[in-house]
Amino acid sequence: MSNEHAHAPAHDDDEHNPHLAHHFDTMGQQTAAAKLGMWLFLATEILMFSGLFLAYFILRMFYPEMVLEAHEYLSKWAGGINTVVLLTSSYTMALGVRSIQLGDVKKLRLMLVLTILCGCIFMVVKYFEYSAKFEHGMLPGKFYSAHLHGYEIDGLPHIFFGVYFMMTGLHGIHVAIGLAIMLWMFVRAGRGEFNAKNYVAIENTGLYWHLVDLIWIFLFPLLYLVK
Amino acid sequence: MSTAVQSHDPHPATEPSYLVSKRGLMSWLVTVDHKRLGLMYLASVMFFFLIAGILAIALRTELFTPDQDFMSAQTYNQVFTLHGAIMVFLFIIPSVPAALGNFLLPLMLGAKDVAFPRLNLLSFYVYSVAAVFLIVAILTSGLDTGWTFYTPYSTSTGTAVITATTGVFIAGFSSILTGLNFVVTVHKMRAPGMNWNRMPLFVWAIYSTAVIQVLATPVLAITLLLLIIERSLGIGIFDPAMGGDPVLFQHFFWFYSHPAVYIMILPGFGIISEIITVHSRKHIFGYKAIALSSVAIAVISFVVWGHHLFVSGQSELAGVLFSFLTFAVGVPTAIKVFSWVATLYKGSIQYNTACWYGMAFLWTFTVGGLTGLPLSTLAIDVHLHDTYFVVAHFHYVMVGGTVVAFIGGLHHWWPKMTGKMFNETAGKIGCLLVFIGFNVTFMTQFFLGHQGMPRRYYAYLPEYQTMHQVSTIGSWILAAGLLWTLIYLVHSLFKGEKAPSNPWGGVSLEWETQSPPIEHNFHDTPHVHGSPYDFPEIDKSGGSAHH
Amino acid sequence: MLFSLLIAPAAAEAALPPSNPGTPPMSDSPWSLLPAASANAEALDSLYIFFWILCGIAFVGMIGVQAYFMWKYKKPAEGHAKTSPLTHNGKLEFIWSAIPTFFFVILFAWGEIEYMKQVTPPPDAMDVRVTGQKWSWTIEYPEVKGCSLTNDLYVPVGQPMRLTMTSLDVIHSFYLPAFRLKKDVVPGRYTVLWFEATKPGLYPLMCTEYCGDEHSSMVGRVHVVAQEEYDAVLAKACELKQGDTESTEDFGARVVTRGGCASCHTTDGTVKTGPSFKGLFGKTETLSDGSTVTVDENYIRESILEPNAKIVSGFSPQMPSFAGRFDDKQIAALIAYIKAQK
């Protein structure tokens, strides 16, 4: 850490770096702080979702047959395609981080576009899945009306679809936020804000996107592939 | 603390303080300076403390007679709900961390600011939005669920539950962001030489608190989200009529809200460690024990939530386990109290207002801690659960603990924050009124509770009247003390003497900069070479017990 | 208002042995303990007293040491005294961690032993069903056919009782301070509470889980009576017929007590969750849909059997139906009672 006077003429490269905020002494300190902050944020995300997972497991414990029967109405194909799409997007995101570490802004932007594209495919598939559920009256809670559309599911399927929509809905919101962030990163990369020495924002975006992917990796088998 | 920088200001009056370095309303509204944000939080939490305090006085006054007096049942229920919700979510939780913590943490660490100043500003506005939601809830149809929002009452009542819980949900995010910011600040922003063993105990306490904020609050968020969805869509997770489990909500809620109790009290512990050492000119007794017991309390706080469900019909095994774990919290808490008392030994105790509050804390918090024991004892809790005994116990911890420490801390750091000295005599009168009023109000409630007086009754059996009246009179004394305190503190802003940079002779870093500090805290990055409790009065010649 | 709840109407109290004049059972003195009227209460009071002695010693000791230090080590008038360099002491810290731990283990174990007794009903316990609803307790005795009491629990001395409890709406909590017992009453599931009363008398029964507007009025009575009188007392309490010399209004008053009507309807004009009975009969009320209705026999009858059919504006649909619980004669008496509240 620098023990020079904060307003004294700078003596190392960091002090020239336009990306160094006033309250940090070095770029290393700034990057480490941003990364630690991101990891903590991811921890809070996992804890938030864990509450929903807990609700899911309690539902399954209470009504195992109903969950088994109701899950048959979820499209394994749609879920499977989305899993592949998200895994691919994580891969392109990782490639994007790698590119900027090597200073290749052009490749970074390409990878961001590919990741955004995958995210959009995910959302489109989700849209078709949701509209099918809406049409069949498989709605959460008191809006559940599948029996009026000729689907008889024993037990209390309105809770299953309540939990299904909450979990995938909250996850979907995270995907949407991720897309917005990546778009912003794409713009910032275009303005030349990132280079091989300053890429922590890209790295954090990547971490966030991997988390969104990871949560889906849990959601898919729990909701679509119950046995 | 011995540092490379001299205690006297090497740049006399060359730089304006943070209060005047920039001018105009906008310079405050968009500030990223942790000190200004601390003051903005301070003003906000004080405002909500006043509102919720007025509600409390209204409640106590209604309870002066056994019958319904000036409030209808519905009004009473709304008033106690809002008293609790505002006190917990808008006052106590942000009080010490967001107000004093924001101001002091970077100063004590020798940093220029917190790690993420813009996030800090965002937290403040998130908190403000939350407050707006709660105010809208009050102004529309109110809230009558109790601050705990138990289902199925909260999913069936006609009041503005969704608006209010959305407010609390948002307040949770403010708390998470502040906690995250502080954890990173403590890890990454310490001045050179400031290793973990040299951090002031206030920093340790804020750090433990921040960890709980980060880990527990997301669960509150999802719980309230589930409640909101349950109420709007009726998914049936908590509603027994739809196949759900109403007690599940209590598990979810207390998984957050019990750790939240420690979010409220741990920062108070930190303040007391600072006050007692500085005003007795002694090194803290058992630095490591106090620091690690904060961490231990933070960890154990996550596994004791079930003691709120002792009579809910949870399994006996769960009851026994939670009872045992609850006792386990008692040990680190006892260690702290003993260490504070031992710190006074062979000190040179200066009876300042802040010191008076520290001494008052030892009394009130000890009562609060000891009365937690019968509540953790399963069989006795069955009798005392949801009676005034519980009300008295948590007020001893929350008010006698946190609020007394908070006011004490406010006096301790008032000269640093405002650059003005308050009147010591006025301060002591205020402290005495608060101490007497508080004990009269809540000591009686232990007896009421033991005699079987249930919580949340607007009308009660007449044999409880005597004690209720004593309690009500106590609450008026307490209110008078707090108002008096507010008046002389505000008065000092305009008429107070100019404060020196180190009025009490503290040796932690915040006393080394001028009062009030400059915008970037220190002219030179401080270097730390020793303990934050190494006072010049300590007799080093014959240090027999110095291992 | 609540006082009158504990002093039940004379007719109901006549069933009690003369030794129980029906006064509130708890002491007026703020310092005396509650009556301990069950085996559990006596056992718990010993634990409780042990706890207070322990905490008293701890508190006095700690505050004593603190006060002594504050007096002894007060700063001199001028300057500061030299202070001790003491920073820690391993032995002392171990001792003051170990001693509380030791006592905590004792308290925990003692509390746990008593708790297991509290939650294990003996096999010969007599069954009672309790149903909580906003804002009254319905008490039913399986062995007395059709007996459904409101807010009155009759138990014989020395007989273990096992209450199986549930709620119709929100969570309530069934609290018997004189027995040192409580248990939440949860909708959609059954919870169990058992006790053995040891002293005849009249004791309060309260709700301790906040359940809405009239939570404070969800107060009932536990009548502990001698074994040999129990059957007669219970039969008398269960019976709800007009006495030969009893006026219809007086009988109506008993019906009101049985129905727990007072938790929402007053007779002094105060408006609680429901309208006051005072001056109610013959009034013209505006309904929530804007139409008007005159409070006559038919409207009252309908309001008892189908309470939420016509809600007077300003009130919310909170009242449970009494269809099947009151017969025609009882309803007629109730109407007569309301008529008499001018």
From TrEMBL, chain A:
Superkingdom of this protein's organism: Bacteria
Keywords for the protein's UniProt record, in alphabetical order: Membrane, Transmembrane, Transmembrane helix
Principal subcellular localization: membrane
Membrane topology: Multi-pass membrane protein
Record-linked PANTHER family: CYTOCHROME C OXIDASE SUBUNIT III, NITRIC OXIDE REDUCTASE SUBUNIT E
Localization annotation: Cell membrane; Membrane
Entry's transmembrane regions: 36-59, 79-97, 109-128, 159-186, 207-226
Pfam families reported in the protein's UniProt record: COX3
Residue ranges constituting the Heme-copper oxidase subunit III family profile domain according to the UniProt record: 35-227
SUPFAM superfamilies linked to this entry: Cytochrome c oxidase subunit III-like
Family statement: Belongs to the cytochrome c oxidase subunit 3 family.
InterPro entries noted in UniProt: Cyt_c/ubiquinol_Oxase_su3, Cyt_c_oxidase-like_su3, Cyt_c_oxidase_su3-like_sf, Cyt_c_oxidase_su3_a-hlx
Protein name (record): Cytochrome c oxidase subunit 3 family protein
UniProtKB/TrEMBL annotation, chain B:
Enzyme class of the recorded protein, top EC level: translocase
Reactions catalysed, as given in the entry: 4 Fe(II)-[cytochrome c] + O2 + 8 H(+)(in) = 4 Fe(III)-[cytochrome c] + 2 H2O + 4 H(+)(out)
UniProt main location, coarse: membrane
Coiled-coil segments: none
Compartment annotation: Cell membrane; Membrane
Keyword Metal-binding attached: yes
Keywords, comma-separated and alphabetical: Cell membrane, Copper, Electron transport, Heme, Iron, Membrane, Metal-binding, Respiratory chain, Translocase, Transmembrane, Transmembrane helix, Transport
Membrane-crossing segments per the record: 39-59, 79-107, 119-140, 160-180, 201-229, 249-272, 284-305, 317-342, 354-373, 393-414, 426-448, 468-490
Membrane topology classification: Multi-pass membrane protein
InterPro entries: Cyt_c_oxase-like_su1_dom (IPR023616), Cyt_c_oxase-like_su1_sf (IPR036927), Cyt_C_Oxase_1 (IPR000883), Cyt_c_Oxase_su1_BS (IPR023615), Cyt_c_oxidase_su1_bac (IPR014241)
Pathway(s) where this gene product acts: Energy metabolism; oxidative phosphorylation
Limits of the Cytochrome oxidase subunit I profile domain: 22-529
This enzyme's EC code(s): 7.1.1.9
Role this protein plays: Cytochrome c oxidase is the component of the respiratory chain that catalyzes the reduction of oxygen to water. Subunits 1-3 form the functional core of the enzyme complex. CO I is the catalytic subunit of the enzyme. Electrons originating in cytochrome c are transferred via the copper A center of subunit 2 and heme A of subunit 1 to the bimetallic center formed by heme A3 and copper B.
Family: Belongs to the heme-copper respiratory oxidase family.
Record's protein name: Cytochrome c oxidase subunit 1
Naturally occurring in which organism (per UniProt): Nannocystis pusilla
From TrEMBL, chain C:
Segments traversing the membrane: 49-71, 92-111
Cytochrome c domain span: 247-342
PROSITE patterns the record matches: COX2, COX2_CUA, CYTC
Membrane-topology annotation of the record: Multi-pass membrane protein
Transport recorded as keyword: yes
Cofactor info, note text: Binds a copper A center.
Domain Cytochrome oxidase subunit II copper A binding: 123-236
SUPFAM superfamilies for this protein: Cupredoxins (SSF49503), Cytochrome c (SSF46626), Cytochrome c oxidase subunit II-like, transmembrane region (SSF81464)
Catalytic activity, as annotated: 4 Fe(II)-[cytochrome c] + O2 + 8 H(+)(in) = 4 Fe(III)-[cytochrome c] + 2 H2O + 4 H(+)(out)
Short name of any one Pfam family annotated for the protein: COX2
EC number: 7.1.1.9
Record InterPro entries: CcO_II, CcO_II-like_C, Copper_CuA, Cupredoxin, Cyt_c-like_dom, Cyt_c-like_dom_sf, Cyt_C_IC, Cyt_c_oxidase_su2
Chief localisation class: membrane
Compartments it resides in: Cell membrane; Membrane
Keyword Transport set for record: yes
The entry's keywords: Copper, Electron transport, Heme, Iron, Membrane, Metal-binding, Respiratory chain, Translocase, Transmembrane, Transmembrane helix, Transport
Cofactor(s) needed: Cu cation
NCBIfam families according to UniProt: CoxB
Function: Subunits I and II form the functional core of the enzyme complex. Electrons originating in cytochrome c are transferred via heme a and Cu(A) to the binuclear center formed by heme a3 and Cu(B).
PANTHER family linked: CYTOCHROME C OXIDASE SUBUNIT 2, CYTOCHROME C OXIDASE, SUBUNIT II
Name under which the protein is recorded: Cytochrome c oxidase subunit 2
Organism: Nannocystis pusilla
Gene that this sequence comes from: coxB
